[in-house]
Amino acid sequence: RLLEAQLQDQRREHEEEVEALKNQVDAMQEELEKQQQAFLQTLQLSPEAQVEFGLQQEITRLTNENLDLKELLEKLEKNEKKLKKQLKIYMKKVQEFEAFQATAPAERRQHERHMQVAVQRKEKNFQGMLEYCKEDEPLLIRNLIT
Question: Coiled-coil segments, which residues (predicted)?
Answer without folding.
Answer: 4-93
